[in-house]
Amino acid sequence: MRRALVLLVLATSVLLVAIDRAVTPLAPVREAGASVYGAVQSAAGTAARAFGGEERLRELERENAALRARLLSSGTRSVARLGVPAGHQGVAAHVVGFGRGQSVTIDAGASSGVARDVTVLNADGLVGKVAWAGASTASVSLITDAGSSIGARMAGSGELGVVTGVPGEGLRLSLFDPNAPLAVGDQVVTLGSAGGRPYVAGVPIGTVAALESAPGAATRTALVRPAARLSALALVAVIVPRPER
Q1: What's the burial of 108, exposed, middle or buried (CB within 10 Å: 0-12/13-18/19+)?
Q2: How far is CA 56 from CA 6, 48, 53, 59, 84, in A?
Q3: Apex CA 206: angle with CA 218 and CA 76, to 5°?
Q4: 59, 150, 184, 218: which has the highest count of C-beta atoms within 10 A?
Q5: Are 142 and 130 in contact (CB under 8 A)?
Q6: What 3-state DSSP class applies to 205?
């Protein structure tokens, strides 16, 4: 299409030059020829731009597909950058959707070793746990879910407690010792579950953002800001169970 238009423009130019030399006066012919030439040139430019835009779009689609393939095929390198604790095996996955409540969908499932009640994290910290696993996708319950309950340890003092999801507020930490030292900025990590399910030990949960005052309470509580940006999740790692011997 593009080549035919260019050839038509050239042929029209040659014809006008030949007529201009053979016939005089030729002003009306020149004007008509200029109009035709301009229309053809404009059409050629439009076609060229459309052709180029379509080709660029296809090129970007190919680049995007290649990038995604590289990310998925380089699971080991990606997982290595996602803070998987030593002694555990992780599978890289992409967050592909947000479900009802505090949950997301990832593009890895049972075919990749993903199972229910295993840890999900990213480079910043704990994301949640797998609530359901299909063949190629899985649903992840975020740590901010109202039903979430995570055994926790203070990174500095070693004090033990539990972190729960609080709708509209994020996370709440409850330390078992009501007199335990606690300050804004303290780091909270996972205590770890038996067999590492649903949570492995030592994964950052978040940072103490505000202390709560409750005189006479059996525990000491504080609000915690999640370490992971749960509203902007992209690449995550799923801790997969090791094959039973």
Answers
A1: buried
A2: 21, 12, 5, 5, 38
A3: 135
A4: 150
A5: no
A6: strand
pTM of the model: 0.66
Instruction: Give the chain's count of helices (H) and strands (E).
Output: 3, 12
What is the rounded (10 degree) CA torsion for 64, 66, 133, 161?
-70
Instruction: Please give the backbone phi and psi of residue 85, each rounded to the nearest 5 degrees, phi first.
Output: -60, 150
CA 203, CA 189: separation in Å to the nearest integer? 5
Helix (H) or strand (E) holding 112: none
pLDDT level of residue 40 (50, 70, 90 thresholds): very low
Query: Which residues on neighbouring strands pair with residue 103, listed in sequence order?
Result: 141
Give the model's confidence band at 110: pLDDT under 50 very low, under 70 low, under 90 confident, else very high: very high
- The pLDDT tens digits of the residues spanning 151-193 come to 999 998 999 999 999 988 889 999 999 889 999 999 999 999 9
Q: Which residues contact 129 (CB under 8 A, 6 or more apart)?
A: 117, 118, 119, 120, 140, 141, 198, 199
- Rounded CA-CA distance 210/14 in Å is 82
Residue whose C-alpha is closest to residue 139's, from 113, 104, 95: 104
Which token pair is 226? Answer: 């999640």
70-87 burial string, b = 16+ CB within 10 Å, else e? Answer: eeeeebeebbeebbbbee
